[in-house]
Specification:
The structure holds two protein chains of two kinds. By secondary structure, chain A is mostly helical. In chain A, about 70% of the residues lie in helices and about 0% in strands. A two-stranded antiparallel ribbon of chain A has the order 1-2. Chain A is globular, with a radius of gyration of 23 Å. Chain B has one domain. Chain B is globular. The chains are: A mainly alpha, B mainly alpha.
Chain lengths: ~500, ~500
């Protein structure tokens, strides 16, 4: 048996290699399907996709066969798995882009693979020159990227760390649970994600968009990815309205969608997060429309397109006709950094964390006046545990840290001050496109290769909601320390024998 | 019979006026001294003298007509916030009477707004100024400029700390007042009596100022300028008697003295006190000071490297980097640029160093110093808190305390610090949105808000070290910034909560 050759693997390393093999197999599958899709047309890149996909698939399957599955998965094993999945899927996609001749530069291919998987709409490729199979490949990568965000955000992270904390456990059950176990939660997500993609595909196809373009746009909308098929389909008003509705749904918590699907509407009426989410969408859309000075229906649609694209961190390009006040650049940046609801496919630190932050500010003001008072932070009349509050605060602290580090590195690479802040926020929130102060869209292909390279870590960190990467890194450090310790011990033993 | 509740309310209101009145007496004395200097150097003594008399009258009324007593938490915020607000308002009178901001036909309202801005910027030790090429600093008299420098010196250690030194009758409330004004989440106690602690702090402050003044004089500055700059270096204020600030002298020796002075001003005064007691440097034992020093050293080398790779000579890059890192890292705000686009003008540098300087604007100096910003201690605790959170994810049943160095930080303090950072972030976002809504560009707005909240002085974008805030921001924007300066100087809560005690008092009276 293969795994007997690799004895004493810790469960952490099993998680790590499971992630790598999953990354290889997923990209392999997408590559082969894309190659086969290419056969319906000219199939100019089909051979490359099929060959590369098959090789990656064999490698992934072999790796999977030699891994001894752990008896019980710890949080760090799962996060290590997700992190290694992210890295292996990104590298494999980079390889596919290089082999298929999308670009001949490794860093550009890596950037494009990151942009696709992390659902960040900051692509530099000229889509009019891409073969349909490559378009499909990119689109499905986004769809998988969106699914990863959902599984992490709605099924894994809320559960981790609550076992020893009864109050956090209750919160998990009441607020974020999609099922009794992780597995059922993942099934619940898939039960919404797949039908939602099909409904959007069907809706786009009804507007006369074509089955292929409709599919690409549907996967891009549902994953909050933001890639567009060729020929600017958003010029069609009906497509735009469907995109707006699709983005609003994608930015909504999948727990909310799950409850809606199970006809538990009553519980949703009291959801503060849901109310704030729709309040932001509607009020900012209307304010943008009213301050633009152009009161046409097209501009109303464009206003909602801009806001829903930013809140859901999708990144479909939209420009309003009329005046763009500078304050909107700040507001768009802010809502992009916040993102949609917790447990949705969107990026950012989510509205729930923002509510906790604001409640924490109010609590601090109360505590200043009554230092010995015990004030619990509540959401929807339910008190939150201190560990949940701590998690939300730390997430925002980490988010800001990633933004700052990325801004420093991208500015050193040559971006001006505003663009560096703008690009780092968008990358960490996995959103796009970037706007100038005047509200125009910025073309990322104008950035130099070093600038684009500095944004890749932020995209991956933001995609994996930062925590898993740090936990995986922490575990890796402990693993290295342990190995180093045992190595030293062995050396000492050898010396003693001598 | 007067009810107990009513007596308590009267006592708290009385203490607020007593503290404010005493503070006004101090600034009245400062104005009077500066009026004499103005007179001896050929200027008009009238504006400063009139402002001094008005402050004396109202200060005397507040001091003699009231009696101090024990205060509740809300009363403390009311007393501290009230004292700062009134001192800033009365502190604007000399500028208003002297017509300092009467240039180019500016109306009375704008003159008052500019006077108030300059006064708040002075007392809060921010160092942002509305002087500029349209209204050069050098065109004003020595007395009014010295008064401007003195506002920063008084604000640096704290007006309320000054008041506590002469009010032993405050007893325990004195400590509450000092804590509400002191920078950082905890205030040090140097002696068993609160009054003695306040006096010790002022003694160290005075000696530090004297030391910097003598060193600046020895480095080649004139006597008056040396005194004026010593006042604003020890207080990490950043006002200068020259339009081009320290760039006027273009002297490495002066800049080195100032760097040393600013580093001392930005570190905890309790550490200085301990060093003087033990007669050796004890600063590096403190984890906060080590981080503060390390952060500034790393930032200096990083900026030097970036500037040197962008066409600066290495020695010039190091000089500009060191000065600007220290001046912003300690929230002082001096400038060594002698003109827009010169080596020291960080607004004209490439964007990398500017972002590093922006980070320093947020961080600020040490707890218990005269500097502003979030403070290194809070960031250390924040970082340790983050690490603990990650460890808890990995080991959900583990017990992980938050450390600062080897000291365990209690969870209540960690929560308070998280709350402070949350309020700080919320204020920064609201401020930035307000300023951009008032037609300021985003970089100037964001950096201006952070600079005001951290009492830094210059900002980025159009509000760089060689720019005037009068050109960079509209009058309403300047008022927003002035409010944020006061909020930042008092570490947010006293200014936000100062209305609670008067509100309760009014409510109680209306109920009866």
């Amino acid at each position: 048996m293969g795994y007997k050759k690799l004895p004493d693997w810790a469960s952490w390393t099993s998680g790590l290699f499971l992630g790598i093999s999953s990354g290889l197999q997923v990209v392999s599958f997408v590559s082969i399907v894309s190659g086969l899709i290419g056969l319906t047309g000219t199939g100019s890149q089909t051979p490359e996709l099929l060959v590369a996909g098959t090789c990656l698939g064999i490698l992934g399957t072999y790796l999977f066969s030699i891994i001894r599955p752990p008896e019980q998965l710890r949080a760090s094993d799962i996060f290590a798995g997700f992190f290694s999945f992210a890295i292996s899927a990104t590298l494999c996609s980079t390889l596919i882009f290089l082999i298929a001749g999308v670009t001949n530069q490794f860093d550009t291919a890596l950037y494009e693979a990151s942009v696709a998987l992390t659902t960040t709409a900051l692509s530099t490729l000229d889509i009019s020159r891409l073969a349909p199979e490559i378009e499909f490949f990119r689109g499905i990568l986004q769809w998988i990227g969106g699914l990863v965000v959902l599984i992490l955000g709605a099924a894994i992270i809320p559960v981790v760390g609550t076992r020893s904390n009864p109050s956090a456990h209750i919160e998990r059950n009441e607020a974020l649970s999609l099922g009794a176990t992780r597995r059922t939660a993942v099934y619940s997500i898939l039960a919404i994600y797949v039908p939602l993609s099909i409904i959007l595909w069907f809706a786009y196809s009804l507007t006369g968009l074509g089955i292929f373009d409709g599919l690409l746009l549907a996967v891009s909308t549902v994953s909050t990815g933001g890639f567009l098929p060729q020929g600017n389909p958003l010029a069609n008003g009906a497509v735009q309205w469907i995109a707006i509705a699709g983005m609003c749904i994608s930015g909504t918590s999948f727990v909310v969608l799950w409850r809606l699907a199970r006809n538990k509407v009553g519980e949703l009426k009291s959801s503060l997060e849901l109310r704030i989410y729709f309040l932001v969408l509607i009020s900012l859309g209307l304010v943008l429309f009213l301050t633009s000075g152009n009161y046409s229906l097209i501009n109303l649609r464009s206003s909602f397109m801009v806001i829903s694209s930013a809140v859901s961190t999708t990144g479909f390009p939209a420009v309003i006709q009329g005046e763009w006040l500078p304050v909107f650049t700040v507001l768009i940046l802010l809502i992009t950094a916040i993102g949609g609801m917790a447990g949705s496919a969107s990026g950012g630190f989510n509205i729930r964390s923002l509510i906790i932050l604001l409640r924490l500010s109010v609590r601090e003001l109360v505590r200043q006046l009554h230092p010995r008072s015990v004030v619990r932070i509540r959401i929807d009349d339910k008190p939150l545990s201190e560990s949940t509050v701590e998690h939300a605060v730390v997430l925002q602290f980490l988010f800001i840290s990633v933004v700052v580090i990325t801004a420093v590195s991208s500015s050193i690479a040559g971006l001006d001050l505003f663009s560096a802040i703008n690009a780092s926020i968008h990358s960490t929130a996995t959103a796009g496109p970037i706007r100038s102060i005047e509200g125009d869209l910025v073309d990322p292909s104008l950035w130099t290769r070093p600038i684009r390279a500095t944004l890749i870590p932020a995209m991956i960190l933001g995609w994996l909601t930062i925590f898993p990467v740090l936990i995986a890194a922490g575990e890796f450090t402990s693993f290295l320390k342990g190995r180093l310790k045992s190595f030293r011990r062995q050396i000492l033993m050898v010396k003693e024998r001598q | 019979m007067m009810s107990f509740e009513r007596k308590k309310l009267q006592k708290s209101t009385s203490t607020t006026f007593h503290v404010t009145g005493t503070a006004l007496l101090f600034i009245s004395a400062a104005m009077f001294g500066c009026a004499i200097i103005e007179g001896t150097t050929g200027g008009s003594i009238f504006p400063l003298l009139l402002a001094s008399l008005i402050s004396l009258f109202f200060g005397g009324l507040g001091r003699l007509g009231t009696k101090p007593g024990l205060l509740g938490q809300a009363d403390i915020f009311s007393a501290v916030g009230g004292a700062w607000l009134f001192v800033s308002l009365f502190g604007a009178l000399p500028y208003l009477f002297a017509g300092t901001f009467n240039y180019g036909g500016s109306g009375l309202l704008i003159q008052f707004a500019d006077s108030l801005f300059e006064s708040i910027s002075g007392y809060s030790c921010t160092g942002s100024t509305v002087f500029g090429s349209h209204n050069p600093i050098e065109s004003h008299g020595s007395g009014i400029l010295l008064y401007r420098q003195l506002t920063q010196w008084a604000g640096g250690m704290g007006i309320v700390v000054l008041v506590v030194t002469v009010l032993p009758s405050l007893r325990a409330s004195g400590l509450g007042l000092m804590s509400a004004e002191a920078p950082g989440p905890q205030s040090d106690r140097l002696a068993s009596r609160v009054v003695d602690t306040a006096r010790e702090f002022w003694k160290i402050y005075f000696v530090l100022t004297l030391f910097i003044g003598v060193a600046l004089f020895a480095a080649g500055m004139g006597g008056y300028d040396a005194l004026a700059h010593a006042l604003t270096t020890a207080s990490t204020g950043g006002f200068s008697t020259r339009d081009s600030s320290i760039g006027f002298w273009d002297s490495s020796a002066i800049e080195m003295v100032l760097i040393f002075g600013m580093v001392l001003g930005g570190s905890s005064f309790a550490l200085h006190w301990r060093s003087t007691k033990e007669l050796r440097v004890t600063h590096f034992r403190d984890p906060e000071f080590r981080s503060y020093f390390g952060l500034m050293s790393i930032s200096t080398f990083a900026i030097t490297w970036i500037l040197a790779s962008n066409g600066f000579e290495v020695n010039e890059a190091l000089r500009s980097a060191a000065f600007n890192v220290v001046t912003l890292g300690t929230s002082t705000g001096f400038s060594n640029a002698n003109g827009a686009g010169s080596n020291g003008d960080f607004a004209s540098w490439v964007s990398g160093p500017q972002i590093i300087l922006f980070i320093l604007l947020v961080f600020g100096g040490c707890t218990g110093s005269t500097s502003g910003g979030v403070k290194i201690f809070r960031l250390q605790v924040g970082a340790s808190h983050t690490l603990r959170s990650i460890r808890r994810f990995r080991r959900p049943r583990g017990v992980f305390p938050v450390f600062q160095g080897t000291k365990v930080i209690p969870d209540t303090l960690v929560q308070r610090i998280a709350g402070f950072i949350a309020v700080y972030a919320v204020l920064a976002v609201i401020g930035t949105i307000t300023l951009t809504a008032l037609d300021t560009d985003i970089v100037t707005a964001l950096s201006g808000v952070v600079s005001a909240l951290g009492n830094m002085g210059p900002a980025l974008g159009e509000a760089g070290p060689t720019s005037s805030f009068a050109d960079a921001y509209s009058a309403p924007s300047r008022m927003v910034l002035a409010f944020l300066m006061l909020v930042g100087r008092l570490e947010i809560f006293p200014m936000l909560l100062m209305v609670v005690a008067p509100y309760r008092s009014v409510k109680h009276r209306s109920n009866n």
